[in-house]
Amino acid sequence: LLQHHGGARVDIYEKLPVPFGLVRFGVAPDHPEVKNVINAFTQTARSERCAYYGNVTVGRDVAVAELRQAYHAVVLSYGAEDNRVLGIPGENLSGVYSARAFVGWYNGLPENRGLKPDLSCETALIVGHGNVALDIARILLSPLHLLRKTDITDCSLAALACSKVKRVWLVGRRGPLQVAFTIKELREMINLPGARPVLNPADFTGLENAVKDAPRPRKRLTELMIKTALEKPGEKTVEMQVAAEQAAAPREWGLKFQRSPQEVLPTADGRRVRGVRMALTRLEGSGDSAKAIPTGDVEELECGLVLSSIGYRSLPLDPAAVPTAGVDSLPLCARVGLYCSGWVKRGPTGVIITTMNDSFDTAHSVLEDLQAGVLDVSSSREGFGAVESILRSRGVRPVSFSDWEKIDAAEVARGKAAGKPREKIVDPQEMLQLIGH
Ligand code: NAP
User: Fold this and answer.
1) Does 47 share its domain with 105?
2) What is this structure's pTM?
């Protein structure tokens, strides 16, 4: 918007004091290169025509209707901050966590800082075959010295140092041709030092033929799984050293297919998880749209830790102004000037570049509406001036981008001593104190 409209001003509202959302709190700490998009955000936020207001919860501190009165256009871009639930008995037992909470915990998301996951068991089970599932498996099994150099929080590093987890099963309800993770992330897992992949060759019988005409990414991904499943430790020629190390690896991980969790089983005292009962499934149909149908057979798998990694979901932010069904369900006249982009619009899929492109599309729609006269900008709107008085009357003090830069500097300084890029501050009160709020 700023680039294509010389007169536009953009204010960005954020619930937490600190910016960057999933880039800070979702992207794995050992993937720093993925976080480079922070530089683009920072450059934009520093523009004279852009302002950042953190520590403002839209829907509570200021209503969407109030924002719509203050601005010519409002874009909802708040992602998917909740997780889907399995909806099976035992899901609330101690030792069962949502991937979202677990990822939030190791990434310093304030609401998950007190999670204290119990890592005292040897076997963990992750439900789901997506990239988040692989992220978690990798964090659970990574050698500590690799994590120490990242911005993972100190307290999760300490918990991982005492972790007894040495085996991680990733369980999917469909087959190898339907996994949702991508090849780069799988390869990283396969090459993880000190952890051995355990794939059952029988799961891959006949698949080479089945993927012959599949799109290239699916074909390559399947071929990598087949190669890994068939390769005996020590057989690799190019990667002999890795193979030798892996044969002796103290930790292991594996993919289990066509198993749909039915119940999380409790220990005898009924307090903790001791395993998961899974319905075996057969596939109806083929390719991406194949459906998992229970065969009637079940299997129990023992584990002391269950992580449910079956995707994220958006929460309604201000049901009075935006129906749960989304902006598009509003009548046309009520929709003028209200836009959405990213996961809140398209659902929780795709990587950062997908979301960036989607936001460019949204900006394009705003500019088109402006040009076509759909957006009436003939009278000026007060923008933050109007919102500021609302916030003041409600006792809310926003955090500016330069405030964030002070928090940022403090985090970087704290990390330096430990050789980390930063030590994240996990308590919002501490952040606010630091900037004198
Ligand atoms: P995802 O890619 O949608 O994967 C969700 C997984 O959960 C799928 O395997 C799905 O299986 C399974 N699932 C859903 N409901 C289930 C149920 N009721 N029972 C059993 N299994 C169920 O979601 P995600 O892993 O949360 O990732 C979200 C997005 O972020 C993805 O686009 C991902 O690529 C991206 N991401 C990327 C990276 C990276 O690039 N390194 C890292 C993290 C996340 P079905 O297919 O059978 O539904």
Assistant:
1) no
2) 0.95
